[in-house]
Amino acid sequence: MAERRIDVFFYGLFMDRSLLLEKGVVPTNERNVFVKDFALKIGQRATLVPEKNGKVYGVVMSLTHSELGHLYNETSLGEYRPEAVLVNFDNGTSGPALCFNLSQAPTADEHSEAYAQRLRALANTLGFPSDYVASIL
Which residue(s) pair with 58 in the sheet? Predict the structure, then answer.
């Protein structure tokens, strides 16, 4: 029996399908989406923080629990914890997805400009709105 897939919202470099494939993860059902009432914060990596009227674009993909375990068992990702979010689709509908966030937002001195540059390039490639791409600092 095939392992069940769940929808996962990615907002950082894991939005890059080729990166996931390199890590042995084969996502399906990929769709560009956004979540409301969050803001993107970048330290050494990205995380979401609650922000009234905020909006973060990303990609929802279907992965298995085994694939998620494989991704988030990396030492550098050990601080990420799963949370439920409501993703909004282009057709005006919404649905639940799992999202991985840091329990503590990064401090200003943790900022990685190299990560931000890579994320801006990826967001642009994915066709996110130009004002959103420009806001990735």
Answer: 33
Residue-wise pLDDT for 53-100, tens only, equals: 999 999 999 999 999 999 998 888 889 999 999 999 999 999 999 999
Instruction: Give CA–CA dist 52/45, Å, rounded.
Output: 22
CATH code of 5-116, in short, is: 3.10.490.10
DSSP for residue 90: T
d(CA 15, CA 37): 20
Q: Give the pTM.
A: 0.95
The encoded tokens of residue 39 equal: 């803001």
Give the C-alpha separation, 79 to 103, whole Å: 7
69, 26 contact by CB (below 8 A): no
Q: Cβ neighbours of residue 114 under 8 Å, at least 6 residues apart?
A: none
Cβ atoms of residues 76 and 43 within 8 Å: no
Share of residues in the chain with pLDDT > 70 (%): 100
The two tokens of residue 63 are 């992965």
- Gyration radius (Cα) of the chain, Å: 14
Are 114 and 136 in contact by the 8 Å Cβ rule? The answer is no
